[in-house]
Amino acid sequence: MAINAKIDLARPDQRGLAVGIDEAFGYTGVAVGAWITGVIAGQTNLRPEPFYFLGAVVLLAFLISVFLIKETVQLAQLEGDDDHHDANLPFVDVLKRATYGDRTLFAAAQAGHVENFVDTLFWIAVPLYLTSQGLAIELVGVVVGVHSAMYFLQIGTGGLADRIGRRPPVVAGMFLAGAGVLGMVLVDGYLPWAVLAAVSGLGMALLYPNLMTVPSDAAHPTWRSAGMGVYRMWRDSGYGVGAILIGVTMQFASPEAAFYLTAGLMFLSGAVVVVWMEETHPEFGTHEPPAPAPADD
């Protein structure tokens, strides 16, 4: 909902920047929160002290949302034409449209699903692989942290898509992230691993906010939030599916095989984006929503 509110507040040609800001600060919050709770746990205990801090953060966020954040749905209502044939779709139709009824939205949904395999790989397989190669635990943390730190660049990559379109950063990001993952099992040494983790993170920073901007561009304002919700469902379910596939691959093949699998799926998913995703930028996009079904006589 925070992203939907920012999109409501932003101009159509600022949606990439709006999403980039939200995602960049969200991931920065995850990193800062992990560091603070780690410090608290190191100086006290694993529980309950870190949970006191988390409870205070949740309470503060709740109070801010109640007393400082204003409703933005009226801005979305003013933005759209309720008489347009694409307006006010029932949720079932939104689900169909955002899943398979629109090739551009399908391309975005499948790419969002697959790209989360990269995050899952860095959480599960990368630490195990690097420690098995003899890298010290503290340096493993640096390599994984370098990947995550690149996500702050989403502010810039989201703004970039407002100028050049959504499609180029998404395509570049899919192949760049896949190449970074693949390269990590083809090199050896702390510095090469850190560089390739940064390459993969840069690819994710290019694609992550701009994939989310695609459904916000393509959806009519009357069902934009629902369309974004469907996209997020398919995207975030990639964490679970990715964890299962990567875990099974590591168990029955090898950690290296998990890297090859993830990279291969990123390249395949990127190819789907190249073939099916149309440009959705509000000023120079080529995407048109599917024509309404003919009415029964």
From TrEMBL:
Keywords: Cell membrane, Membrane, Transmembrane, Transmembrane helix, Transport. It comes from the Archaea. It is a multi-pass membrane protein. Gene3D superfamilies: MFS general substrate transporter like domains. One of its GO terms (molecular function) is transmembrane transporter activity. Residues 1-281 form the Major facilitator superfamily (MFS) profile domain. One of its GO terms (cellular component) is plasma membrane. The keyword Transmembrane helix applies. The keyword Membrane applies. The chain crosses the membrane at residues 24-42, 51-69, 168-187, 193-212, 233-252, 258-277. Its main location: membrane. It is found in: Cell membrane. This is Major facilitator superfamily transporter. It comes from Halolamina pelagica.
